[in-house]
Design a protein that fits this description.
18% strand, Polysacch_pyruvyl_Trfase, Polysaccharide pyruvyl transferase domain-containing protein
Amino acid sequence: MRKILLTYGDIKTINIGDYIQSIAAKQFFDDDNYIFFNRDELKLYKGEPAKVIMNAWMTYKPYNWPPSSQVYPLFVALHINSSAESRFLSHDSIKYLKKYEPIGCRDYHTMNILKGKGVNAYFSGCLTTTLGKTYKYNGKREGIYIVDPLSYMPNGNNFFEIMKAVVQTVFYMKPVLKILRNYKKNNRFTINISKVGIGRLLLITKSYLLLRKLVVPDVLYNAIFITQFNMSNEYSSESERFARADELLTKMASAQYVITSRIHCALPCLGFETPVVYIRNLSESKKSTCRLGGLESLFNVITVKGENVTSNFFDGLFKRDSSFKNKIDFVEYRDRLINICNKFMMS
C-alpha cells in the first residue's frame, strides 16, 4: 500500500521540528512508494488507499478533521493541542479515533483527554527517540550546540516586558550582536523590521541573559547557535526543509553536548546518546506546556522561572569539558514504538 509522509504547508513561519518528526516516520517505510501530503488537510485526500504514521501536533486546521476514509492511520506519538481540543473531542472525532484504538499519545494531556472520552489511549512517548536507527554516531564527539535556548519571548504579550527587553538589548548590544553573528553564520536567519525579525533580536537578548547563568563565557561565545524556528522564505520548499532537518539531526548526533528548549531537538538526542540539557520555561503558555507531560521526565532539566534557574542534575556552570549522561527512561518507549511501527508497515 502507498504511504503518506506528512508535510506542513505554506505558512508564515516553520518549525523544523515538524520535519524531524516526519523523518522519524519515514525510517519505517519499506519502499519508496510514498507521497507528501499536508498534515492539516488529510480530510481532503482522495488518492489511492495510503498508510500514514500519525506522529504529529494536531492541528492548525481542526475543521479538516477527521481524515479521509482513504487514509489508514497508525496513531502513535499523537499530540492534541489545547487550542484544538473542542474539535478532537467532538462525537465524530471520538468515533473515528475509536476505530483505530489503541491511540498512542505523545503526552499525558492528550492521553487523559482521550481517556476521558472513553478512548483506549496510552502514553507512547515520541517517535523522534527512534532516530538513532538512522543517525547513530560512533565517532569522536565534537561541538557544543545551543538550540533555541528560549523558544518563546517570556511574557511576550506584556508591553512592559517588551520595552524592558528593548532596553536590555541596547544595554547588552555587544554580546547580543556577537550571538546574532553566530546565528547568522549557522542558520538562514533574517533580522528585519517586522514582528518576527524584531522578536528574534529581543529573544537573543533574553537568551543571552539566561545563558550567562548556565554556561561559562568560553561556551557562551564559542558554542554553535542553531534555531529550529524559521520564516517560510528562509527555507521556501519542502525539500529544503527536509534537508535542513536532516542536516540538524546529523549535527546533533555527533555533538559533544546540546542545550535546548526544543523537544524535537532534545528527544532525538536521547536516541543518539548525545548528552542533552532540556530548558523548561515555566512562563510558557498552556498551548506550549500541554505538550510536556510525560516527556519532561525523560530529560535532564534546567527549570527557568522568572529570574530563577534550577537544575535537577547539574551544579555550577557548564564548561567546554563538562560531562554528564542522559536518563535512559525513554528506552522502553522507543523500543515499543519501533516494534509497533514495523508491524504496521508489514501488515
